[in-house]
Amino acid sequence: MLEIRDLCMTIANERAELDILRNVSLSVAAGESVGLVGESGSGKSMTLRSILRIEPSNATVTGNITFAGTDVLSLEGEALRQMRSTDVSMIAQNPHAVLNPVLPIVNYLIEGMHDAQGMAKGAARLRAGELLEQVGIDGVDRVLSSYPHQLSGGMLQRVVIAGAIAGKPKLMLADEPTTALDVTTQAEVMAILDEFRRDLGMSMLYVTHDLDLAAAVCDRISVMKDGQIVETGVPEQLRDNPQHPYTQQLMDSRPAGIVPQETAPSERTPSQTAFSEPDANEGEPK
Ligand SMILES: Nc1ncnc2c1ncn2[C@@H]1O[C@H](COP(=O)(O)OP(=O)(O)OP(=O)(O)O)[C@@H](O)[C@H]1O
Which parts of the chain span the membrane according to its record (predicted)? Predict the structure, then answer.
């Protein structure tokens, strides 16, 4: 589905040329969920931005990105717009960055379906209501007519997820979609995203600095440091046999006393990760 080979990005400022991405290679198969985990500034967001071709204007990007057989770095005009509006969706960290503060929620949801997919406005409004119900929102009419400042962060991120899945994209790019939320809401929002991903058979590239969150919803994880992928493996592999000292460091910096679980990603919930403690009641007589 997505194949990135030797992706490099440099950004020139007045003083120097900065190497932001250095020979990044990764792949995401159809229906697969891949995590991109690393510390702040390691290049995770820039990798996602390169896929959508929304890197900073002073960046130089080389290498290869192939999406569904198409060479992404040579796309332009209508073909690029098409990819961004229907094939690939992105959920960013902060919902306020994508929602217009002076327009009600309904405008945000209808805009994508009406403008990008050519749906009639009435049909798009009905579909917007359905989508909000699907992401677990009650009182849909009230929410559709609300302005962003009237809704909680968790609610807004659900709205953004509803907008992102409206066009049934093949690939979801999720850039720390729950970082701004409290822990309980984080798990709920991640569960919704994960469920949709499975139902629609979407691929996902999920950026986070949290190894546990990635292990909860990803089939494989790539660990990133200083603009490079230092290691890729299934969650259990990274846990039991980390090959790179930085992966070991990430494992060691997690809360102490955590016992690994032998559960396949498809059987886990976002609050139950490959690394998390087994359920306290597990094995006890009912
Ligand atoms: N417009 C820009 N001009 C120059 N350097 C930039 C620009 N935007 C980002 N960078 C630098 O690129 C590097 C990678 O940034 P990126 O946002 O991809 O990191 P990240 O891993 O996503 O971090 P975080 O988890 O904090 O979002 C950082 O060193 C950052 O300072």
Answer: none
Report how far residue 256's alpha carbon sits from residue 59's, in angstroms, rounded to the nearest whole number: 40
Which of the following CATH numbers is that of domain 2-93+199-267: 3.40.50.300, 3.10.270.10, 3.30.360.10, 3.40.50.620? Answer: 3.40.50.300
Using one digit for the tens of pLDDT, what is the confidence trace for 195-229?
Answer: 889 988 999 999 998 888 898 899 999 999 999 99
* Domains of the chain, residue spans: 2-93+199-267
Question: Would you give the end-to-end CA distance of the chain in angstroms?
Answer: 45
For ligand 1, atom 26, name the residue with the nearest CA: 40
Q: What's the pLDDT tens digit per position in 47-70?
A: 999 999 999 989 999 999 999 999
How many angstroms separate the CA atoms of 110 and 252, rounded? 46
Residue 18 Cα to ligand 1 middle (Å): 11
Contact (CB, 8 A) for 152 and 125:
no
Best CA proximity match to 106, nearest among 82, 136, 89, 130: 130
Specify the pairing of strand 33-38 against strand 220-225: parallel
Q: Residue 268: helix, strand or coil by DSSP?
A: coil
Mutate to test the pocket of ligand 1, among 19, 40, 46, 57 (most ligand atoms within 8 A of CB): 46
Q: Residues of 223-259 as b/e, b for ≥16 C-beta within 10 angstroms?
A: bbbebbbbbbbbbbbbbeebeeebbeebeeeeeeeee
Cβ atoms of 269 and 285 within 8 Å: the answer is no
